Amino acid sequence: MWSRLEEKISKFGYRPYTGSVLHELEEEEEKIEILRGHSEKLAISFILLKMSKGATLRVDCHNAAKLISKVVERERVVRDNKLFHNFKHGLCSCGDYW
Description:
This protein is of the alpha+beta class. It has helices at 2-10, 28-36, 39-50, 61-71, and strands spanning 76-79, 84-88, 91-92. It has a three-stranded antiparallel sheet, with helices on one face. The chain is globular and about 40 Å long. 4% of the residues are buried. The model has no long low-confidence stretch (mean pLDDT 85).
């Protein structure tokens, strides 16, 4: 599903932003391949496969990440395109800014 979506949105100018890939890779294609496995892209693809046409898509990784940090009792640091988010004890360092 993601491959089909990526092909369609590429016609409208979509290009993966590889600047956010934290892995030290030299090949641009390797970075693009990593971005194809991004959890939100996969979640959206799965939802599109399962939901009826016209239904609203909601993907909320931020709230889930906070609760996961609490139940697994582990700290988790995630970087988005603007901030680092430090999830710990069910809270986020951004103070739910986004």
